[in-house]
Amino acid sequence: MTVTWGGDALEGALLDGRYRVGTRIATGGTSTVYRGLDERLDRPVAVKVMDLRYAGDQQFLTRFQLEARAVARLKDPGLVAVYDQGFGTPQDSGQPFLVMELVEGGTLRELLDERGPMPPHAVTAVLRPVLGALGIAHRAGLVHRDVKPENILIASDGHVKVVDFGLVRALAAAGITSTNVILGTAAYLSPEQVRDGNAGPASDVYAVGVLGYELLTGHTPFTGDSQLAVAYQRLDHDVPPPSSVIDGVPAEFDELVARATALDPADRYADGIEMAETVDAIAHRLNLPAFRVPAPRNSAQHTSVLPRQPPSPAAPPAGHTLQMPRVPQDWTVDTDTQYELVTGEFAGIELGQFMLERAHARRMTVIWLAAVLALTGLVAALGWTLGNNVGALL
């Protein structure tokens, strides 16, 4: 998480004579999200203000308006509600903005950063509402195109919600950002999006398959020297089974990820609803316990409501960023929280045993890295010794 010191010109502004902009929650490459207040209805809201460069892009503004209207018609507990959209005023540079439901909590990315990989029962608790929301949109003819942990919110009451429907399509309409949009989501793009930019419901299914792999293992399946290299790997390579990374993952989850991430869209689940039905069947077959997904404790959302302190002499100067440390935790819930500890089995394996297997996998990774580093150092030292004494040896 990144916290920015310094003022913000939009904080305190009144958009469209109705929406009072409050403290900043988060800043991304294309927009900034603020807490806000609908002064007409006296209702807290979230205000997503797009970057100033989009204010004069008519193609973007038209697509932005159309997508906002389409998403506002969708109704599902797993979707962040869109209340309104606008384009600001000349006094605030006319930046386009969205007014949305304010979800108190944090992002799935922040939760993964805090707690690491999830056991299958927690993965199921995340995927069910995500797929349900995507399925509603798919049946309405809409595609998200950018499913990733940053676009999944975990509310303080445990609800999981998908946000930013339609923004990628609007951003892609602006020539100045289309390349950044593609590269910014390289880890979750489907092969057809990488190949020709086309996306359908099966593209969102592919992204959820990659998401499921990441939730189970703690990282995405492909790596590379650049985001472009990561994106192109999926054109010829299958996503490996999660069980190849962490012991104890049921075969049913390997099969779920494999079908969702098939290279050919025709071989995947048709849409979010079909994949959700499979997740439900797996949960029933394995008798997975119910789980309430906890909101991240150190989220940007929580930080935004803390009293703002002036920078101390040791703090970064205005306009600079301070990287907050991540706090690694396990999925065993502390007794002083409101979340209930889940016990039982899945696929005949004790949940505690799953945790031990995961910890063992982490230790083995550290041991192998240490061994490789030690061997590299030994080879380097041997080469240096031989180089300095080659004359004596000859």
From TrEMBL:
Origin: domain of life: Bacteria
Stored SMART domains: S_TKc
Every Protein kinase domain range: 19-287
Statement: the UniProt record of this protein carries the keyword Repeat: no
Gene3D superfamilies tied to this protein: Phosphorylase Kinase, domain 1, Transferase(Phosphotransferase) domain 1
Keyword Metal-binding: no
GO molecular function list: kinase activity
Spans annotated as Disordered: 298-325
Transmembrane segments: 365-386
InterPro entries for this protein: Kinase-like_dom_sf, Prot_kinase_dom, Ser/Thr_kinase_AS
UniProt cross-references to SUPFAM superfamilies, sorted A to Z: Protein kinase-like (PK-like) (SSF56112)
Pfam families: Pkinase (PF00069)
Keyword annotations: ATP-binding, Kinase, Membrane, Nucleotide-binding, Transferase, Transmembrane, Transmembrane helix
Name recorded for this polypeptide: Protein kinase
Organism: [Mycobacterium] vasticus
Lineage of source species: Bacteria, Bacillati, Actinomycetota, Actinomycetes, Mycobacteriales
